[in-house]
Amino acid sequence: MWIHIVGGGPSEQLPSLHQYDGKQVRWLGVDRGTKTLLEAGIRPVKAFGDFDSLTEEEIASLQKTLNDMDIWPAEKDKTDMEIALEWAVEQGADQIRIFGATGGRLDHLFGNVQLLIKYANRDIEIIDRQNVLTVHLPGTYTVSYDERYRYVSYIPISHDIKGLTLTGFKYPLTNCHIFRGSTLCISNELIQSSGTFSFSEGILMMIRSSDFHRCL
Predict the structure, then answer these.
(1) What is the pLDDT confidence band of residue 11, given thresholds at 50, 70 and 90?
(2) So what's the pLDDT on residue 75?
């Protein structure tokens, strides 16, 4: 089971959601993202949030359309996205993708990245029209070439990353030790059909990017 979550970020930052639809996918709406899903012709199985970005008329319309809306007060200790992500994790989803989490308020963007760090042991991606962001614990990972995302960057989340090795990349590394704040691993590229990255200690973010906005 895959769970895809759509937040209330700017719609112009969204890829084509239908590209990520399928029989195995369950969609969740978060605040305004619920309206975005319905406008795209996708019915979420559940919606979360305080819905403070919608009018009373829009909320009433959602309540008539959807069977399951988890409405929270505006004053709470978690963001709407965290509430939805917690629910998705509790369902035992094999993969979680988050859309509508970038391009708007920076505090929400950084909060959403923090959620990926919190659940670094789960398969979770943040996706927009130009980027795919993931967070990784120590291990060895395979990266397949994707012409949509030419650039591959690695950013230390923990204080340091030990034993970082990149193979199949234009700029390879072998057993490198990098620290938080380093830009050494920004804007690399695969030169083979696939490559690998591995490291022995730390928490590492991978961002796959394109130079141009595309309707993916």
Answers:
(1) confident
(2) 79
What is the distance between the alpha carbons of residues 34 and 39, in angstroms, rounded to a whole number? 9
Local structure of 13: helix, strand or coil: helix
Report pLDDT for 212.
64
| Comparison of pLDDT for 63 and 20, the residue scoring more | 20
pTM of structure? 0.90
* pLDDT tens digits, 106-156: 888 899 999 999 999 999 999 999 999 999 999 999 999 998 899 999 999
pLDDT at 41: 93
Strand order in the sheet with 160-167: 139-144, 194-199, 160-167, 173-179
**Cβ atoms within 10 A of the Cβ of 91, count?**
13
Element (H, E) at 49: strand 46-49
CA dist list (Å): 111 to 4, 98, 102, 206: 18, 13, 10, 17
Q: Residue 46 and residue 69: Cα distance in Å, rounded?
A: 6
Length of the chain as a residue count? 216
Cα Dmax for the chain:
58
> Do residues 148 and 216 lie in contact, with contact meaning Cβ atoms separated by under 8 Å?
yes
Enumerate the β-bridge partners of residue 190. 169
Q: Quote the radius of gyration of the chain (alpha carbons, Å).
A: 18
DSSP string, 53-116: TS-HHHHHHHHHH-S-EEE--SS-SS-HHHHHHHHHHHTT-SEEEEES-SSS-HHHHHHHHHHH
